[in-house]
Structure formats: structure tokens, C-alpha cells
Design brief:
- The longest helix has 33 residues, at 2-34.
- The chain contains ten helices and ten strands.
- 38% of the residues lie in helices and 20% in strands.
- It has 271 residues and is of the alpha/beta class.
- It has helices at 2-34, 91-94, 99-102, 125-142, 155-166, 181-188, 194-197, 204-208, 228-232, 259-269, and strands at 36-37, 51-58, 64-71, 79-84, 88-89, 106-111, 148-153, 171-175, 215-220, 243-247.
- The protein has an eight-stranded mixed beta sheet. Strands 1-5 form a two-stranded parallel ribbon.
- The mean pLDDT is 91.
- It folds into two domains: 1-34; 38-269, Alpha/Beta hydrolase fold, catalytic domain (Rossmann fold, 3-Layer(aba) Sandwich), CATH 3.40.50.
């Protein structure tokens, strides 16, 4: 009996040590899991297709926000789509999506987050909000709110939701969103108190509750990065007139290739 008890206690000790060790590793490595930036040299030359302009905005002595503006052909401007991209690389990874909007006469403004591309400074949640607000102020200085569309993809959906809650726009469109960062982490590390461990909150659901403009959400039912149920939880925060569009067999990065996504997005941008 004593031998069995010692064996049980020994295994409990090993399990507790492993649990604590993995938890500590998750806490200190969470930025590595959440953000995958690729920095670019200040003299890097972009080679995007179509018309574009690089804009560098000194935020303070340490931080510079780099934003790329993509332009439609001709002189007609229907408005602007402010596009908050995902957690990988920089604007170069997402520039290909600009044509989904420029073909409808919209400018597309894509800011890089601190530490992504040519944007500099330490990445914090406070800075993500502050710089998004700055970009929205720039958009409002050029376009009426009825001509401003806010779009978020993956990580950028939370930033886009914040922007729409803090400024006026025509509508908010979210592609593969999450309820919050702790909620997303809990889908992977369910045995840990992620609510208290997460350095970033980005409460998309909370922001959506404060958005008065129309909201459309796209999410694939086969998303391997942000589980469908994590996005579906956002329906609690939507208005009766808002849309949650499920893309059958849609994964995290292939929604723009699905006919239903294309048709719905084109319909929204024609309004």
C-alpha cells in the first residue's frame, strides 16, 4: 500500500511539474504564438501591382506607422476600405486582396502594426488601438463616414472591431474573427486559466456590442486556426440586421477563393 502511494505521489509530482512548466512556457512564449512579423529595411522598395503610395507617419520619437494606399484605376473614388491584416509577415502578404476592393472604386489603406514591415516600435495592445484610431482619423479627414468601410482579417478583426466602435463608418466586415484572445487561447490550452495568462485581450465581442453600423462576418466551417465555434460566439454581440455568413469547407486562408464569399463581398461593396 505504501509503495503504491509513493508511486501515485511521484506521478502527481511529475504531472504538476509538467503542468507548471508548460504553463510558464506558454505565458512567456505567447507573443511567438500570436505574432509572426517580418520586418523590412527602411529602404525596401515595394513592387505591388497597380497604383499605390507608401505613407510613413511619425507617431512619436520611437514609433513610425507605415501604411500602403492602393488606388483604383481612373479618377473616381467611391470611398476607402481600411484593411487591418492578419498576424503574419507584413502588408506584402495581404496586398493581393486589395483588388477585391479597388475594382469597386475604393481606395484600400493597409497599415502595418508596430514591428511589422517598415512600422517601428514595440507592439502593445494600447498601440494597436491608438494607431488604428489615428488611421481612422486620417480616413475621416478625406472621406465622409458613409464612404468608409472597415475590414479586418484574422488578428486584424479585433482591431477593426475596435476601430468601428470608436469611429464612424459605413460598415464593418470581418473575415475569420475571434471572440477574444484569451478565448482563442483557451481553445488550444483549455486546461490553463488563459483569461489570466494572456498578455493581450483584444475583446472583439465587446467591441462589436458598441458598433452601431452594419456588420458582416465571414467564417469557414473548417477553419484550422480560429475554430468556427470561437467565431460563432460573436453572434451574441451582433444586431438583428447583421450578417454571419458561414462558408462551407472554408479554411482560415482560403475564403476569398470561395464563390459565396466573392458574391457576398461584391454585393456589400456595390451598396
Amino acid at each position: 500500500m505504501n509503495i503504491n502511494r509513493r508511486i501515485v505521489f511521484r506521478w502527481l509530482k511529475i504531472i504538476i511539474i509538467l503542468y507548471c512548466g508548460i504553463g510558464i512556457a506558454l505565458y512567456y512564449l505567447q507573443r511567438k504564438f500570436l505574432f509572426h512579423p517580418e520586418k523590412l529595411d527602411p529602404d525596401h522598395v515595394y513592387s505591388f501591382k497597380g497604383l499605390f503610395e507608401e505613407v510613413k507617419l511619425p507617431v512619436n520619437k520611437e514609433d513610425t506607422l507605415c501604411l500602403i494606399k492602393f488606388f483604383p484605376q481612373g479618377n473616381y473614388r467611391k470611398g476607402v476600405v481600411v484593411y487591418y491584416h492578419g498576424n503574419r509577415d507584413n502588408v506584402e502578404r495581404y496586398a493581393t486582396y486589395a483588388s477585391n476592393f479597388t475594382k469597386h472604386g475604393y481606395e484600400v489603406w493597409m497599415p502595418d502594426y508596430p514591428g511589422f514591415g517598415k512600422s517601428t516600435g514595440e507592439l502593445t495592445e494600447k498601440k494597436l488601438y491608438a494607431q488604428a484610431y489615428l488611421v481612422q482619423q486620417m480616413a475621416a479627414a478625406k472621406y465622409h463616414s458613409d464612404s468608409i468601410v472597415i475590414y479586418g482579417k484574422s488578428l486584424g478583426t479585433g482591431i477593426a472591431a475596435y476601430a468601428a466602435s470608436a469611429s464612424k463608418c459605413q460598415r464593418l466586415i470581418l473575415e475569420t474573427p475571434y471572440y477574444s484572445i484569451p478565448d482563442l487561447f483557451s481553445r488550444y490550452a483549455w486546461i490553463y486559466p488563459t483569461r489570466y495568462m494572456s498578455e493581450f485581450e483584444i475583446p472583439t465581442g465587446q467591441f462589436l456590442s458598441d458598433v452601431t453600423e452594419p456588420v458582416t462576418i465571414f467564417h469557414g466551417d473548417d477553419d484550422e486556426v480560429i475554430p468556427y465555434r470561437c467565431a460563432a460566439k460573436l453572434t451574441e454581440n451582433l444586431k438583428a440586421s447583421d450578417q454571419f455568413i458561414t462558408i462551407k469547407d472554408g479554411r482560415h486562408n482560403n475564403l476569398p477563393g470561395h464563390d459565396r464569399y466573392k458574391a457576398a463581398l461584391d454585393s456589400l461593396l456595390k451598396l
